[in-house]
Design goal:
Methylamine Dehydrogenase, Chain H, 730 residues, 2 domains
């Protein structure tokens, strides 16, 4: 499983129309700071990991202190007293969303409270430059330096590293290896950075420097852009000049050095290699060690890739993580990666690599705390995408390894369980808060489908919604007048759609599906009484309608192609769809059989918009626009009124009304004259109160937001990498 990439958002709920657009009177739409008594407490709705843990780093000098990084969900510190991870980068706001991916991290062995992070999710032209955060209090507070280069925490090679290092000679000096801009150096503890001369030239689309590691007083750098004949491991002995490490093993020049670990007792450097940076695409690899005192290289590969599996397939994989035991000379753990046929494992040696034991073979996995890890099967996998491996320097039996969905840990090398409490990295796309039933929340995410949250403080006991299991959820809809009926859509293993008659506890797959569902499953909606389904399949594809729980489907030619279907919450005959290419609202008054254009002249071309409907009110529509604010209609879309001081609305939702109010509370992630934040309005968007704070921003939060229809003030937010955040008045 991978962490879901940030994508542009299409319509998520609703209706729009406006033959005429008018402005509210001046003063409506005002935003204000949270008044006394409305301060919010924010927590994760527990899922239990769900994303790619790309690095784990135990502090070499402090027992119980460790850090973890993720590809899109920030960094964490391990709190040994509570056995949970503490998020360190939730303060990153909307404008800096690209910094929620952590490319690398570093600690200072001589100063335990110092922590450094290199941030930057994408290195593409449309993404912002990276930054370095530095802390003197283990991540409680930060100082930031913006870089003029891009980093790629969610790109190929994100499991390599670490690319950031405190120099072993001088704690004020740091090194940062980049993908496309060579080697950077800081001599003032990360405040300023300058490029330095390095023997190899980066490729425009390559990996550049994949790892930096101290071995004694020397620093070694892995190079991911070798042409197959040149060196891919370099070193500096004096901190000024770099040279290729002599005698590099034959065959490794064509591979990427993924990770390295140094055994200070034997003075040997262990390096893992693969024929691609990973986490995908690796089919070959090896492990080598260098005796730094003599320059002697020895291959210590546990098992060579390329063997034959029992079913006649090829056992192809690379090598990824590596960690040494600080207490036992010659004791090393390495991981395979991308080994799908026989499943990835950790190999452990106690004799410097002469013999190895597979830890997977005797492993007992307990995933009762995060049941989704079975993925609908009888038992979970030991791991996949294993590039992060760490060994506790104070406990030889404590090994952890990251996967595409969790972090497994053991204290005895045999019994393994997720060591993931507090670390939540789901990319959440869809939220529904039912008005009745056991669960207050249903969520739909990238990679892990739909979850039924019967409790907010524990991973859903039913795991992922099964029958069928989805990788990524694309649609989730509840019948407003019959909330026990729910439908979902997504990328499934045996079908791409399902319905539930018990509020999402159990599911049955649609008996059939349109052909387009196989290649482009999209958003789906059920009407108010659950008698009609409307399913959309992306740009260029028509919508389809079913009146028998998905047993049969008929094309709806008049539905705007690629639009998100939205059902009226009261009238079961009415559906809506917004065509962003023309800025036109389409509506149906015959249960989705036909659609006609109603409002024209609305905002066109905004791909990050949302169409929403007010619960309990027929024809009350809201158009939420990233580029141009918020519009409201109370006449079924004949006219729209602009909420004048809402400058941008990224996502909109509704919850239980305040005491004495007749309209549901409105929740919005968006921008007002007070800035970009999460807001609540108790007076139909006339005024707004900010309910998050600068410590709780979570980067990009434009996918979904909804209030709880049963608990006033409670709001659920879909984040792109920090799971479901829920807030309540403190």
């Amino acid at each position: 499983m991978c962490a879901f990439h940030l994508t542009r958002r299409s319509v998520l709920a609703g209706t729009t129309a406006a033959a005429a657009i008018t402005a509210l009177p001046a003063g409506q739409g005002r935003a204000q700071a949270a008044p006394a008594g409305t301060r919010y407490r924010w927590r994760n709705a527990v899922q239990g990991g769900t994303g790619f843990v790309t690095g784990v780093l135990f502090h070499p000098s402090v027992r119980g202190l460790a850090y973890a990084r993720t590809d899109i969900g920030g960094a964490y510190r391990w709190d040994d007293r509570t056995d949970r991870w503490v998020p360190l980068t939730d303060h990153i706001g909307w404008d800096d969303w690209n910094l929620l991916g952590v490319e690398a991290m570093a600690v200072d062995p001589a100063h335990p409270s110092r922590l450094y992070l290199a941030l930057g999710t994408y290195a593409q032209s449309w993404a912002g430059s990276g930054a370095v955060l530095r802390s003197e209090d283990r991540g409680a507070t930060w100082k930031r330096t913006d870089l003029g280069v891009k980093l790629g925490a969610n790109e190929d090679g994100r499991g390599c590293g670490e690319r950031l290092l405190v120099d072993p000679r001088d704690g004020d000096t740091l090194w940062l290896g980049t993908r496309h801009d060579g080697l950077l150096k800081s001599t003032d503890r990360g405040a300023g950075w300058q490029p330095v001369s390095f023997p190899a030239a980066p490729a425009p689309a390559g990996q550049g420097i994949t790892l930096l590691i101290a071995a004694g007083r020397s620093v070694y750098a892995g190079w991911g852009d070798s042409d197959g004949t040149s060196a891919n491991l370099y070193r500096t002995i004096d901190g000024s000049t770099w040279e290729a490490v002599p005698g590099q093993p034959g065959g490794t020049a064509a591979k990427v050095p993924v990770r390295a670990a140094y055994d200070r007792h034997t003075r040997e450097l262990y390096v893992t290699y693969a024929n691609a940076p990973g986490p995908n695409g690796q089919s070959d690899g090896s492990v080598h060690k260098l005796r730094t005192t003599s320059g002697e290289w020895t291959e210590v590969t546990p098992v060579k890739p390329g063997g034959t599996t029992s079913d006649g397939g090829t056992d192809s994989f690379g090598y990824g993580g590596v960690a040494v035991d600080a207490r036992r000379p010659g004791t090393v753990v390495v991981s395979t990666n991308n080994r799908w046929a026989l499943v990835d494992t950790l190999y452990r040696t106690t004799d410097g690599g002469r013999t190895w034991t597979s830890l997977k073979d005797e492993a007992v996995l307990d995933v009762s705390e995060t049941p989704y890890l079975t993925w609908g099967a009888d038992k979970p996998k030991f791991g996949w995408w294993i590039q992060a491996v760490a060994l506790d320097p104070f406990d030889s039996g404590h090994v952890v390894h990251g996967t595409g969905a969790t972090l497994y840990g053991t204290r005895d090398l045999r019994h393994w369980a997720p060591q993931i409490r507090g670390l939540e990295e789901a990319s959440v796309r869809l939220l529904v808060s039912p008005p009745t039933g056991e669960a207050h929340l249903l969520s739909g995410s990238g990679d892990i489908g739909v979850m039924y949250h019967e409790r907010l403080t524990a991973s859903p006991s039913r795991g992922m919604a099964s029958n069928p299991v989805f990788g990524t959820a694309t649609g989730l809809s509840l019948a407003a007048a019959k909330p026990s009926y729910v439908v979902r859509a997504g990328w499934g293993d045996h079908g791409n759609g399902a319905f539930s008659d018990d509020g999402g506890r159990t599911w049955a797959p649609f008996r059939s599906q349109p052909e387009a569902a196989e290649s482009a499953p999209g958003p789906i909606a059920t009407n108010a009484d659950g008698s009609v389904l409307l399913w959309s399949f992306g740009t260029g594809n028509p919508g389809y309608r079913s009146v028998d729980n998905g047993a049969g489907w008929s094309e709806v030619p008049s539905f705007p192609k690629g639009a998100t279907p939205v059902a009226d919450p009261v009238d079961p005959t009415r559906f809506y769809g917004f065509d962003t290419t023309t800025g036109t609202l389409f509506a149906s008054a015959d249960g989705g059989r036909t659609f006609t254009a109603r409002a024209t002249g609305l905002e066109a071309g905004d791909t990050e918009f949302q169409l929403a409907v007010t619960p309990g009110r027929s024809g009350h529509l809201w158009l939420s626009l990233k580029s141009n604010g918020l519009y409201r209609s109370t006449d079924g879309g004949a006219t729209f009124t602009k909420v004048s001081s809402c400058r941008a609305s990224y996502t909109l939702g509704f919850g239980k009304a305040a005491e004495g109010a007749s309209h549901p509370a409105v929740y919005m992630a968006g921008s007002t004259e007070s800035g970009t934040a999460v807001y609540r309005s108790d007076d139909e968007a006339n005024t707004w109160t900010r309910i998050n704070d600068d410590r709780h921003q979570w980067g990009w939060i434009g996918a979904a937001i909804t209030g709880d229809p049963r608990v006033y003030g409670r709001v659920y937010i879909a984040t792109n990498g920090r799971g479901v955040q829920y807030g309540e008045p403190a």
